[in-house]
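Hey, I'm writing a tutorial for new members on how sequence and structure tokens pair up, and I'd like a real worked example in the thread rather than a made-up one. If someone can provide the structure for the chain below, I'll link this post from the tutorial.
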Amino acid sequence: MPSKTVTVGSAVGLHARPAALIAEAVAKSGASVTLATPGGNPVDAGSPLMIMTLGAKKGTDVEVSSDDEAALAQIAEMVERDLDAE
């Protein structure tokens, strides 16, 4: 499965608001997308709760994986943005 490693940009990490926005985008895409921290197990990016279990703080590397290239690019870009600033 294609993947891209990006750095979390949200000031407080992937907590409730960023996780909800990412999960919503995954649901709208209809694609299967996973997120994983280095050495961790991949989690379903369509679930805000699963995203929050990563414990990813600002500056943490996260691997975004999906067979859908458009969804992969969109979610990777969202992880890199400060979603709390919007």
